[in-house]
Amino acid sequence: MTKTEYSDANLYFRERFGSKVYKAAISLDVTCPNRDGTKGLGGCIFCSLGGSGEFSTKGDDVIEQINSAIEKLSAKVSPETKYIAYFQSFTNTYCEVSFLEEKIRKAFLHPMICAVSIATRPDCLPDDMILMFSRMNRIKPVMVELGLQTIHEKTAEWFNRCYHTEEYDDAVRRLKSQGIEVITHLIFGLKDETREMMLQSVKHVVDMGSDGIKFTCLYVLTGTGLEKEWRRGEIKVLSRDEYFDIVDEALKILPPEMIVHRLTGDGPKSILLEPSWTKDKRSVVNYINGRFEKRSVIVR
């Protein structure tokens, strides 16, 4: 059986930065416009109370958070390892431009940081924020990760995304016009979405010219709106084979130059309810290695 190839982010970063690269997750004192009432309340139905930042280190000082993240990885890395400062939880551009610029500049001061990655929403990217990213990108690489999840408006309304797909399209165009690398997040297994619909979202991301992509399955976390629907029997999560069959088809849509930053995600075990197969990370990694083939990409 021929394995499906994909352009692997680990190989890409090794070529680009000259060493193994890990992410050092950072949590800022920010929220989201669909949590604070500006656009909605409660956040996305699948998002945890921690704003998907359970793996990040807490604290006010960026350097201290980076050092704490590096310390957690110290047993399995070499002295040559480099890190991307990953501003992960909530919406990291839902703030004053000067606030985020200060945090990025501090991250750049750390000798082991080779780039930053900013997780955000497309509707929270005013022009002055993008221009700031352009300035910072001249110092060290800046990547922006956009939580699209789906292009289908009915699905987005169900999970309380509170922005339209056209806003994603506009954000990608404006980021790319300033030379900012874009990574797009998609979720497979959202309520009432067919395989065809999921692959339509993949194709749209490709057509928009996103530089990278992250796939994950829908998972149910304690304390979320999704948990309530799941307990009522209104949600069926994908099995491992169902999910990776969709990933397999999605990878065949991607152009060789698009970097795959994640084939699947895993929720925090302490609050993860389903799918149970994601809890055994070693087994998932072995399955991925047996089914898919990493492909090195020449650095652009």
Strand order of the largest sheet: 2-3-4-5-6-7-9
Radius of gyration: 18 Å
Global morphology: globular
Biggest β-sheet: count, sense, barrel? 7 strands, parallel
Structure description:
The relative contact order is 0.15. Helix 3 (97-109) runs parallel beside helix 4. The protein is globular. Strand 3, helix 3 and strand 4 (113-120) form a beta-alpha-beta unit. With 300 residues, the protein is of the alpha/beta class. The longest helix is centred in the C-terminal third of the chain and has 14 residues, at 195-208. The protein has a seven-stranded parallel beta sheet with strand order 2-3-4-5-6-7-9, sandwiched between helices. The chain has a two-stranded parallel sheet with strand order 1-11. A two-stranded antiparallel ribbon has the order 8-10. The model has no long low-confidence stretch (mean pLDDT 94). The chain has ten helices and eleven strands.
Task: Briefly summarize what is shown.
The chain has 300 residues and is α/β, with parallel strands linked by helices. The chain is 36% helix and 20% strand.
